[in-house]
Structures are given as structure tokens and as C-alpha cells.
Amino acid sequence: MLDNNFQNTTSFIGFVQNGRIFNSYGQPLGYTTDEYNKAIDTAKGFEKILYDKGILTKPKTPEEINKELQETLKQTQSMMLEMSGTIGLLNEKVSKLENSNVKQAVTDDNSEQDPVPGKSASTKSGF
Predict the structure, then answer these.
(1) In what side-by-side order are the strands of the sheet with 14-17?
(2) CB 51 within 8 A of CB 44
(3) Which pTM value belongs to this model?
(4) What is the pLDDT of residues 61-74, one digit of tens each?
(5) In whole angstroms, what is the distance from residue 94 CA to residue 97 CA?
(6) Nearest 5°: phi and psi at 61?
(7) What are phi and psi of 55, to 5 degrees?
(8) Are 78 and 70 in contact (CB under 8 A)?
């Protein structure tokens, strides 16, 4: 009779050869920790080469991102101040043009009026 402790137990029979783990049928299942660490070190070495050659760019740190954002905000504020000044100058020019157009219109209206009150400019005297 089987003991109940062995009914739910999973067993594994395998072997390790050249840093690889195989089951009892010779099928590869994985790698040892040493082989895994070698693969990671190799990948890191290639990554460093790619960074050095400029093929990959290192991700920015949060501090670098914050610094760039602050610089961008300062530039944006500076541009907005400059634009605000320009808008103010343009508003002044528009006001002056409107005032001069109003004065010109008033002057034009006055010159078209009759020089003598009560007599029309188009009426010619017969004398």
C-alpha cells in the first residue's frame, strides 16, 4: 500500500552536462545558474559596446528628465514674455491706427460740410 505522503509529490530525475540541465530522456530543460550568469554578462558586454558605438542610447535618469523639463519651462516662459511684449506693441499700433483713422474720418467729414451754414456748396450764385 502507498503512503499518502508520496501521492502528491512530484519528482524529477535529470542530469547536468556542460552547464545545461536535461531530463532522463535527454531533452534540454534549462541552464545552470553559472551558465545563466555568463549569458547575462555577455549580453551586458554587448550592450556596453552598442552604447559606446552610439547604436543604442542610454535611458535618461529621472534627474536628467526633470532638468530638461525645467529648461524647457524656462524657455517657454521666456518666449511667452517676449510674445506678450510683442502683442502689447501691436495693440498700441492698432490703437494709434484706429485713432488716426477716426481723426481722418472726422477731418474728411468736416471738409465735405458746407463752408457757410445755411447754403449748400453745390448752389452757385447768379451774381
Answers:
(1) 14-17, 20-23, 28-31
(2) no
(3) 0.41
(4) 999 999 999 999 99
(5) 5
(6) -80, 160
(7) -75, -40
(8) no
